[in-house]
Amino acid sequence: xYIYAHRGFSGEYPENTMxxxxxxxxxxxxxxxxxxxxxxDGELVVIHxxxxxxxxxxxxxxxxxxxxxxRLFDAGGWFHTRFTGERIPTLxxxxxxxxxxxxxxxxxxxxxxxxxxYHNMEEKLLTLLYSYRSWPHQVVCSSFxxxxxxxxxxxxxxxxxxxxxxxxxxHVLNAIRSFHAxxxxxxxNFLISQEGEKVSQEIDICVYTVNEPFLFTELMKRDVKAxxxxxxxxxxxx
Length: 238
Ligand code: G3P
Ligand code: CA
Hints:
The chain is α/β, with parallel strands linked by helices.
């Protein structure tokens, strides 16, 4: 079972920042998951929420700032003062950094476009990814938005896609067939549901967010491809 760092090594470093990605990589994770939103001037930036309030010293929506403005906010001090100075990274920045890393991993890019429907986000993402085609890392694009995954599939059927699912969600099989998903990423509640049982027989499953070692042990008994965790150190210690 593979271990992916959820928002980077976000249990011990500020989520979705360069230091969280670097430390996860150094620890030896098999993959890194991150979240992408879009600025007013169309830059893909790595941040979980639509607003910057929770994880920076600023207030407002990502969509209302240009990237130059967004860059001025601190994205580390909220977690601990020793991380003051971390910035909201661009997706390009993360990909450039990953380009320099020799050990290949999975980069799971979650398109955060189900609350705000960012215009052209899928096109922009694909254009960006084409410039990293020669690297050894595997990219998987995920989203809670089926519409967005369908669009990605129309634009490029070869891009690896994962549908994000939670709780007692139904009709997942129909959805994943419609855009030829490679994986489903789900929580524990979905995994143990009837629908979850059916889905796991058809497609690779990754489970989020697994922070407790006992849950990890439970998942090892099941046929799960990967777990996403905020604390990859806890799972590696086993
Ligand atoms: O990709 C799995 C997981 O990250 C989805 O939930 O809210 O942590 O982005 P969230
Ligand atoms: Ca995510």
